[in-house]
Design a protein that fits this description.
single chain, 397 residues, alpha+beta, Alpha-Beta Plaits, 2 domains, six-stranded mixed beta sheet, 9 helices, binds zinc ion
Length: 397
Amino acid sequence: MKPLRLPAEDRQHLLTFLRDLVRIPSPSTQEADVAQRIVEELDTVGLPEVKVDPIGNVVTRIGPGGGPTLMLSAHMDTVRVSGPESWARDPFSAEVEDGLLYGVGSCDMKGGLAAMVYALKILKDLGADLKGDIVLSCVVQEEECEGLGTRVLIKESGIRPDWVVIGEPTDLNISRGQRGRLEMQVVTHGRSAHAASPHLGENAINTAARLVFGLEMLTEQMAEDDFLGPGTLAVTDISSRASSRNAIPDRCSLILDRRLTLGENETTALSQVQRVIAREGVGATVAVTEYRASSYTGYECQARKLYPPWVLSADHPLVDAAVRAAQMQLKRRPGITHWRFSTEGVYTAGEAGIPSVGLGPGKEAAAHTADEHVRLEDVYTAAEIYAQLALRLLGRA
Ligand SMILES: [Zn+2]
C-alpha cells in the first residue's frame, strides 16, 4: 500500500464541479438540477453505469459485480438559506479565498460528494483489480428526513452494502456513531370561551406552558452514554388554535426534538413525556410526528420521524481500515469521534445494521451556518482517502 494522489488536472476538475454544485440551489425535494449536474460529471469522468432511482437518488458503481460492496454515501440536498443578510458572501457564489470555498452546502456536504466522485475516478484510472463493488449513492432529502433516501435505494435497488462510508463533515477524522433523533408532538386540549371571560374556558396555552416547564425538568433524567453523551430534549415549536384573538384557545401544539443516546428508544422517550403529562394532571396527548413530502421526481414519501442512535465498536475492522487509510494519506493518525448531528447512518447502521463510519472534509461546526465553507485541500485529500480505503477493503493485491 502506498499513498494515492489526485493529479493536479483532476483537482482542477473537482474544483469546477464543486463550485457548480454549490451554485445550483438544492434544498430538500428540489434536487433535480443538482442531480442532473452530478449525472453529467459521472459521465465526464467515465463512469457510465449511472442510474436515477424512483425517489431521485443518483447512483453509480464500479467493480466486477458480485463480491462484497462498499457504499460511499452522500446527500445532494442542503438546508434552506434563511438569512442571506447574515452571510458576508453570496451563499450561491462559491467564492474561493485563501484555499477555502464558501457557499451553502460546501461543507454539508457537497465537498464530500465531489470528493467521492473523484475517488471513483482515481480507482478507475488506476485500473484497480477489485474483488467487489464500490457504489456511490447521492441521496435526496437527507436534511429533512435522514435515512429516507438510502432506505428507498436499498429496498428498491437490490444493492446490499457490506460497509458504508458517510461523507458528512468530520474534518477528516473518523466518526463511528451519533445520537438518534425522535420528533414528537404534544397536543393540549382546552375549552373555548370569550377572552373577556377566561374563567369560563380552559386555556390550552396555559396547560402547554405547564408541560414546557415539566419537560425541562426531564433533562436531569436523561440517559448518558460514555461515548455519545446524554440524551436531550428541546421544545422547538409552539402553535395554538382559537376562533379569534379574543377567544380562549382550545388547542395548543408543542414540537419536541428529542436526541436519543445509546440505550434510549421510542418507548423510553414517549413514556417520559407521558409521565410529565400524568404528573401535571392535564389533558394532553403525545405522538411521534410523520414526515410527508413529494420528492423532485414525484415519489410520495412518508416516514415516522424516528431515527435510532448507532455506534460501531472501536475495534471493528471497518474503523481500523478507515484509520489506516486516512493515516496513509494524512501522514498522521486521524482522531476517532462521533457526530453531534444526524446522518444517513440512522438507516444504514441504526436500522439496517450495516457497519458504517463517517469521514469527510469540512468541520461539523460549519454546517448549517452563515459563511459555510470547506478547505479545498481537505476535499482533495478526502478523495484520496476514500480511494485508499476502497483499495484496502476490496483490492486483490
Ligand atoms: Zn449533511
